[in-house]
Every structure is written in C-alpha cells, then in structure tokens.
Amino acid sequence: MIQPRCMPMTKNLSSKLSILAVMAIVSIQSIAIAAPEPTETETAQPTIASLDAALKQNPQDIDAHLQRGILHAKLQQNIPAILDYTEVIRLDPSHALAYTNRAAAKLNMRDYRGAYLDYTQVIRLLPEKAITYNNRAVARHQLGDCKGAIADLRISAELFRLQGDTSSYERALNNLKVFQRKR
Fold it and tell me: Which residues have CB under 8 Å from 122's CB, separation 6+?
C-alpha cells in the first residue's frame, strides 16, 4: 500500500474530484464517437429489463453488458455497473471503454486503487487519451502518490495541448497547480 505523502484531500480538492469525475464521463462519450448512426429500430433506448432479457438469450453479448453497465452507472448503481463492465472485460480484455467506465465507477465508490489500476490499463490501450492521465492523477493523489499524480497531470496537460484542446489544457494546468501546492 502506498503511504500518504500528500496532505489529505481538502474541500477544494473534493470539488475538483467531482469535476474530474465529470471529465471521465466526457471521455467515455468521446471514445465512442466513431459509432455508426442508429437505424430507426435501434433508436429506442434499452432498459435494464430489456438488456436482462437479451443477456438471458446470449450471456456473451458484450454490447448488452456494456449498455446495462452504463444504465446502472447513470442510476448511480456502481456495484452492478462494475459487474457488467467486468464481464465485458472478461469477454474482451482490450475493451478500453469498459475499463474507463469501471474506473469511473470505482472512483465514485472511493476504490482509488481499483480506479488507478483500470486507468493504467486504459493508458496501455490508448496512450494518447489525455483525460485518462487526468483521471488517474485523481486516484493517485487519493492514494498518497503526489509525485505520480503530478506526473500524470503533466502528461495530460501536454497531450491536451498537442491535441489543440485549449480549455482542457488550461484545466489540467490549474489542477497541476493545486496538486503541487498540496505536496
């Protein structure tokens, strides 16, 4: 276990965590940008019950597990969401979106070690995903790894800068300043 080397999270950093959790959700949506436009029959929103039925017929349906996990997460049902994302990962160990979503749910549950491990896996799969470094920095900070958190924020800021995302770059720099002061 990493021994805390940082000061405990303050109210200000607690609000930053909420902002970063929102940014994690935004990153989840941006991974799926390449999805094709749905047809008329596909536009009906699935429900947990309809996905349960689909999974009864085909327990290996990765998309049904993923969609059910997303619905559980929207309802703040983190444990069922994590179980669905874990099943997606079991079926497809390179499913970056499932790791990202599971990490966000673990952050919500204050499972910082689990979130750190999942974000690390996303970074292995998608090393150019700036928001993942940003989110992993939150988990690292909560684990007491200030140096690692600062390193992740620096990488995040640089990737945002290189990708031309000025507002995210500026947010990452602001987060970096906050984390450096708390060292």
Answer: 96, 99, 100, 103, 129, 132
Chain-wide mean pLDDT for the chain?
A: 84
C-beta of residue 157 within 8 angstroms of C-beta of residue 173:
yes
CA neighbours closer than 13 Å in the CB half-sphere of residue 13:
19
Provide the whole-model pTM: 0.77
CB 20 within 8 A of CB 26: no
Look up the domain containing 84 and give its range.
11-26+60-181
Q: What is the pLDDT of residue 116?
A: 98
> Is the residue at 76 inside a domain?
yes
CB 91 within 8 A of CB 83: no
Integer angstrom CA distances of residue 44 from 1, 34, 39: 46, 20, 10
How many structural domains comprise the chain?
Answer: 1
Residue with tokens 């349906």: 61
Which tens digit of pLDDT belongs to each residue from 64-77?
A: 999 999 999 999 99
Structure tokens at 101: 């979503």
